[in-house]
Design goal:
2 domains; alpha+beta; five-stranded antiparallel sheet; six-stranded mixed sheet; Rhopdopsin 7-helix transmembrane proteins; Phosphatase 2c, domain 1
């Protein structure tokens, strides 16, 4: 190759462009790294790194797209778009920066930043459309600059407030670092946004150092915020694991061993802890009570109420043979402690020696009775008012004759409420079909088959929406 030929000569990069190329590339790389961190972690707390990355990358791209030597090295189709890209970035920088700050904001500042985001997007859309159509954009550029100045002035005022006041508006574990970085950038940015439209000189190195100082300070604080959130989240997860172990410990560890009865239980909470509860009240080899309860809501508050129900059941156990009285005593024991929560309950008393069962409920789904001799399901409702409603109500009791081959189901509404892709609930009809299909299976296998059918009903992408508790009671010969 003839290096002396004009076609092989590569002009040197102007000294003035070197700083811009290096700093612009560095800001783009920092933006890509921050975006990668947000993508890998995939938690709401690291979203601040996503917007920080967008902000940094846009700033770097703005510099690179405005550098003559960089633009000259681009292919023709990219070179013609460089000015348009730079113009679009100049509008979107305000939006990206505000979204990054929004992740650290609280209260009224958060509301104000949302207004700035909407205003910034509106100005950006108008500016880009006007520019592409060949219209005059000077007023929009000025509006964008003023919006940037306004947002920066507000943030500077907030970060320089006393710590007790700043804590009302920003999540700042160490306010001093961010205050210093914001102040350095503000001094430079306020001058640049006012000087450039007026044609005053502005040194490029000041822009780079000012933004680098803010980026470092913001990233430092954001990292500390994320680490603190992760620490709290880990602590909460550990506490939930302990709460789950405690809750499981209050559930029966075994099913009653009755000569003429086989019992299977299934308990699947929606979250780590649940508001469902079941309990057995065995009296002798022939008589036993079965309780299922469902607290409104989910998670820790519902689990605490469920623990209270467990204690109340112990105090009402003397009335095990009288479902109506047992439920009444439960309501009285709980009524001053539910705190606007509600509890549904169903109680079944089974006497295999007499061949009878007594059933009563408080706002609960019906008892299902599979009659083997008839090959069909009977749904038995005997409901009074649910717990938590300040009404002095009675709980009617339904007496049922039971014979060998009968199968009784107590369950919470999490079993029948899941919906398929067409919005159809699993419902009593589908429950009856599964009972028919699995009528010859033992109680434990029926439990597993029912749960499998319920979980297969919604689309695969839909997670369990409610706690599920199921008791299957088979009457044997």
């Amino acid at each position: 190759m003839d290096l002396s030929s004009p076609s092989s000569f590569i002009p040197p990069v102007p000294r003035g462009d070197v700083l811009t190329i290096l700093s612009g590339t560095a800001f783009v790389v920092v933006g890509l790294v921050a975006g990668a961190v947000a993508a890998v972690r995939r938690r709401g707390g690291v979203r601040v790194f996503l917007w920080l990355g967008v902000w940094s990358a846009l700033y770097g791209l703005q510099d690179l797209s405005g550098t003559a030597s960089v633009v000259a090295a681009l292919p023709d189709w990219l070179r013609s778009a460089a000015s348009t890209v730079r113009m679009a970035i100049s509008y979107l920088l305000v939006v990206a920066a505000t979204l990054a700050w929004l992740e650290l904001s609280l209260g009224r500042l958060r509301q104000l930043l949302r207004v700035i985001v909407v205003a910034g997007l509106t100005i950006a859309a108008a500016g880009i459309v006007t520019s592409l159509s060949g219209g005059e954009t000077r007023a929009l550029v000025l509006a964008n600059n003023l919006l940037a100045v306004l947002g920066l002035a507000v943030l500077l005022a907030v970060v320089t407030l006393p710590q007790t006041m700043a804590a009302r508006y920003l999540v700042l574990p160490h306010r001093g670092v961010l205050a210093a970085g914001t102040l350095a950038f503000a001094i430079q940015a306020l001058y640049a946004n006012l000087a450039r439209p007026l044609g005053l000189p502005s040194a490029r190195i000041l822009d780079v150092l000012g933004f680098a100082a803010l980026l470092f300070a913001f990233g430092y604080v954001a990292l500390q915020v994320v680490v603190e959130r992760e620490r709290r989240l880990l602590s909460i997860e550990n506490e939930l694991a302990v709460a789950r172990r405690i809750q499981l410990s209050i559930l029966p560890t075994t099913t009653p061993e009755l000569p003429r009865v086989r019992v299977a239980a299934a308990y699947q909470p929606m979250t780590a802890v649940a508001g469902d509860l079941y309990e057995f009240l065995p009296v002798d080899p022939h008589r036993c009570g079965f309780l299922v309860a469902d607290v409104s809501g989910h998670g820790v508050p519902a689990a605490l109420i469920a623990s209270m129900v467990k204690v109340a059941v112990g105090s009402a156990a003397a009335s095990a043979a009288d479902p109506s009285e047992l439920l009444r005593r439960l309501r009285i024991a709980l009524q001053d402690h539910l705190r606007r929560r509600f509890v549904t309950a169903a109680y079944l008393w089974l006497d295999t020696e007499a061949g009878t069962a007594r059933y009563s409920a408080a706002g609960h789904p019906p008892l299902c009775l599979w009659r083997e001799a008839e090959g069909r399901v009977l749904r038995i409702e005997s409901n009074g008012i649910l717990f938590g409603v300040d009404v002095d109500d009675t709980y009617p009791t339904c007496e049922i004759a039971v014979v060998p081959g009968d199968r009784l189901l107590l369950y919470t509404d999490g079993l029948t409420e899941p919906e398929n892709a067409e919005g159809e609930p699993f419902g009593d009809s589908r429950l009856g079909q599964v009972l028919d299909e699995l009528r010859s299976r033992p109680a434990e296998e029926l439990c597993q088959g029912l749960l499998a059918a319920v979980h297969a009903w919604p689309p695969p992408s839909v997670r369990q929406q409610d706690d599920i508790t199921l008791l299957v009671i088979d009457v044997l010969g």
